[in-house]
Amino acid sequence: MQVFRIAIKTVLRHPMYLLVYAGFLSLMGVFIASSLTFGGSNGNEFSPYETKFAVIDRDASAFSEGLTAYLRKQGTEVAVEDSPMALQDAVAKGQSSYTLIIPEGFGEAFAEAARAGDELPTMETVYSYYSTEGNLMDQVVNEYLGIARAYAGLEGAASLDDIVQHTDEIMAEAAEADSVQVGGTSSEAQRFVFFLQWGTYTLFASIIVCVGVLMTTLNRTDLRRRNLVSPLPSLSYGLQVAAGSLLVMVAVWLWTICLGLTVFHEAVSMISGTGLALMIAASFAFATIPLSVGYLLGQLGVGEFASNALGNILGMVISFLGGAWIAFDLLDPAVQTVAHFLPAYWYTNALQSAADLTVASSDTVLPILANIGVMLLFTVAIFAVALVVGRLRVQSAEAGGNAGAARATTRA
């Protein structure tokens, strides 16, 4: 088992790769998944954000009271003293995001100007320049005034009460809105699903880089030549290299899975036992894909820096197309078509279906197993290519194989 021990020592001599790719990226996934909101809403009811506002009503007319009553439906009113210092403190200390000052006689002056088509009187507003809340509330006020002006101009005999009533009726009209859940049910269990989806980047980057470094070291020309002439059977050598690579993959995979199960134990408890087992199986099947890619890169003689670059690029691209960065259903249809040819799509499908599994039956389990089977086909296909490449490389002149012997004979 000397080759196996050398393979493991080679990986351990590069601890930064494990710390950065396996450790840091996994912890980043934990932080992101913990910060996101999953579930927590009652049905599909939409709850708008309520802005804190204050109204200084120096007019006390029916119009100013109607405007104030409407604003109470749009936000949360706070009491602010009618003094310059209090108004400044309310904005500076964040007590009020928007303060509206209605001058005395504004209601009557507004109605008269609207009827005559003259310039409307103005109200003073105070809100912070670095917040959009006050600006949005000011737009609501302007919309209210615009409707009131139009009605007062058309109905010259309308009183302030009539103007307020009509404006409230118009402002009450709104388009129906509903929330649509993308990518499965919304629950706390989705936090663990997202962590595993993010793990596509972690697994790809860490396993490809570590296995790539291992294979690059063992496939150096001088070391490869010594192995070819050593008494160690080629089958034993290959099995020991494969065992070393597999151990690296299992270590990274176990770290990712155990971290997710520990941190998101509450989310895991909401998943059925069969569903959780299938999610773990899908994660293991997916981890074998970067293992085969790393083995292929090693057989191609890709260097350490190139393995780093390819591991990161492939990890980001595949995780993006698998829905880790943005919900898959929100991607462009052309991008979705491309994603079908990559393993992360089948991995995401398996995870989501397993997380939603409530009753284990052939109709619910077989599609998940089919997704896992597709991922294993990716592994087998890439590994087969790697074996062919490795065989050709052994026979090449650089490796000292048959081509090298032929070249030496020709020179002689």
3D structure, described in words:
It is found in: Cell membrane. GO terms for molecular function: ABC-type transporter activity. It comes from Eggerthella guodeyinii. The chain is mainly alpha-helical. The chain folds into two domains: 2-37 and 187-405, no CATH class; 51-172, abc type-2 transporter like fold. The protein has 17 helices and four strands. The longest helix is centred in the last third of the chain and has 33 residues, at 362-394. It is elongated and about 105 Å long. It starts with a helix and ends with a helix.
* Radius of gyration from the alpha-carbon trace, in angstroms: 33 Å
Mean pLDDT across every amino acid position: 81
Largest sheet: 4 strands, mixed
How many β-strand runs? 4
**Total tally of structural domains:** 2
Q: Please provide the ordered H/E string of secondary-structure elements.
A: HHEHEHEHEHHHHHHHHHHHH
Approximate helicity band: 55-70%
Subcellular location: Cell membrane
InterPro entries: ABC-2_transporter_component, ABC2_TM
Membrane topology: Multi-pass membrane protein
GO molecular function, one term: ABC-type transporter activity
